[in-house]
Amino acid sequence: MSKKKTTDNLYELIQALSKSEKRHFKLYAQRYNQKSKSKKNNTIELFDFIVKLDLYDTNLIQQHFAGKNIAQNLGYEKHRLYQLILESLNDYHRQYSTRVKALHLLQQIEILFGKALYKQVGKLIQKGLKLIKDKNLYDLEYQFNEWVIIFLKQQNKIGGNYDEFGQALTKRIQLLDYIRNEVEYNNIAFNIIELHYEGRTESEEILKKYCEPIFSNPLLSSIDNAITLKAKYAYLSIYVLYEYFSANHKNAVRYSIQLVELFESNPVFLNENLRRYTTVLFNLSFSYIGLKDFDNAQKTIEKYQSLPEVYGKHFKKNEVIYHEQQCIVMELTCYNDFGYFENSLKKIGMVKSKIAQVKEVENMYNYAIMYYMIGLAYFGTNQYIKAEDWIKKYKETFSDKLRQDFQFAMRLFLVLVQIELNNPSTANYYLGNLDYYQRKLGLHKEVEKTIISCLRKITSAMFKSGKEQKRNYKLSFEKMNALNSNSNVYRVFNAWLQSKVNEGESFAQIYQRIFLEI
Fold first, then answer.
1. Which DSSP category does 143 fall into?
2. Is the pLDDT of residue 207 over 90?
3. Is the pTM for the entire model greater than 0.85?
4. Does the chain have fewer CB atoms within 10 Å around its N or its C terminus?
5. 296: exposed, middle or buried (Cβ count in 10 Å: 0-12, 13-18, 19+)
């Protein structure tokens, strides 16, 4: 039996190529073919075989090319193929990426200058400056300007233009200011992101405490301090993130709309930073959800969905797939948060299609949300067996790899499903799992601790009379209601408890009402 190696740099690189990149490589590699055009060289043969592999297997490659040079020199042939693919990618992206084109020109300028071909150097410098004009690529513009200074100093030996030289020196200072400004704002943005993403289990008060020193920075006193478009983007993003994570959705929407206007009033900047623009719309839709504004959330989602059609040439195939995943996540979240669980279930076919579209989970977070949201939708429509199936799929697929709040919610659902199905033993098993998970990760929030305490009473009463069960539901509901939290697990559990206490009201109705009241 052959020993399979599931990770290999060359294999991973080939699997990451898009169809157009693979096609370009075949054409690029053909230039190096020393044989007749009717035959393939070793590089293309090896490439074609590895492309078809579901898993990387060295023994399988050796067997396939037995008796050929490829098998005898596999290490060398793999290295040669790897390097040629990188060169091909550089050639391919030079056609589409302004940055790659500019970097290539800078490399050519350095080579020509070393050969004292100054006239050719001057032409390439002007070509580069023209290429990046109005593209907000100040780091690259700085490098070209440095070559302008070097070039003019060389020309001064035979009588140069000192006015132009002085302008280049002034430009150097201006560009350094632009670059420094962008770097400073980006650093602040990264600090805000890290504080909030790493501090999900902490209280909002603690997060605000650590954010206060950051917001004391004079740069954040006004957007006018941001000199460049990228700096302005960073400034607004800082406030969007802070307000969103602080649950101040009104301000988050206000800053997000300013970001949308910033992009849409600068088409070149939008085209060069399309992924950032999609992220702005993504966050804006969730801010509208936080504001309980279903109509504007839907409009933003529709706008987000239309982006590949509007900016098609800027989307690669893998980016379109990712974009479609994000659309499903946005729609499911919007429908579920407003209690429209039936609408979410209409998306199941699309969810299954996206899951089947890839061999491995490319974006774990997106797929996790899909599983979780469909499980919630089935639970909200009282289809508990199907809810359990999707939540179990979530657990089996993602294990403990995701955020703690999702892991806790998933385990909570499994307990509630078993209570609904009247399986006391299984409910207690899952409750033990939930309790162990909470203690293992040190989740000491009052909400999680209170939920587990309530569930212990509820599951212990499953063997008792209906009257005793009702009493435990009521006591648990009063206990939870006193906490007045806005976390998702609180809303799910509180809505479920209330549906047990209030006859005639469904989980979906109460879940929606709690969301609108928070």
1. H
2. no
3. no
4. N
5. middle
